[in-house]
Design goal:
One of its GO terms (cellular component) is DNA replication factor A complex. Helix content is about 35%, strand content about 30%. It has about 140 residues and is an alpha/beta fold.
Length: about 140
């Protein structure tokens, strides 16, 4: 009988772990889906919201950076942000009332990014909101 109880406990633990990781995955996917791609011109429509933006780093100063993302955007960096002046970067962050973006995650994309294509993707997602998940 002890083996049955142990197996049962192990099964319950595994099931609980699966539920936890599935829930964490759903939350991560929901956050990913709820961070629409924007350029500088869309900032005022997404205050208080999570967004994704791609731009070229034009200036680094302390805990802030300036990006060119079809317009100037100021981003407030976190400790994990390692940007290089002149490189492209993808930022996921929250738009502040002053239209700066508080960085939650950043990824250096290097120098070979087609910013025209990035802007076209943004425009397509905003033009065809019925296809893409955008609440703004």
């Amino acid at each position: 009988m002890r083996n049955c109880i142990s197996v049962s406990c192990i099964f319950e633990s595994v099931a609980a772990a699966c539920r936890y990781f599935c829930r964490a995955h759903r939350i991560a996917m929901a956050e990913q889906l709820s961070s629409p791609r924007i350029t500088a011109q869309y900032l005022d429509s997404f205050v208080g919201r999570l967004v994704t933006i791609v731009g070229r780093v034009t200036q680094l100063r302390g805990d802030q950076a300036t990006l060119d993302a079809d317009g100037t955007v100021t981003v407030v960096l976190n400790r994990d942000a390692h940007l290089t002046n002149g490189n492209a970067v993808q930022i996921i962050g929250k738009v502040n009332p002053d239209l700066s973006i508080k960085v939650l995650s950043s990824r250096d994309l290097g120098a070979g990014v087609d910013f025209g294509l990035c802007a076209a993707v943004v425009e397509a997602t905003h033009r065809h909101k019925d296809i893409f998940v955008i609440d703004g």
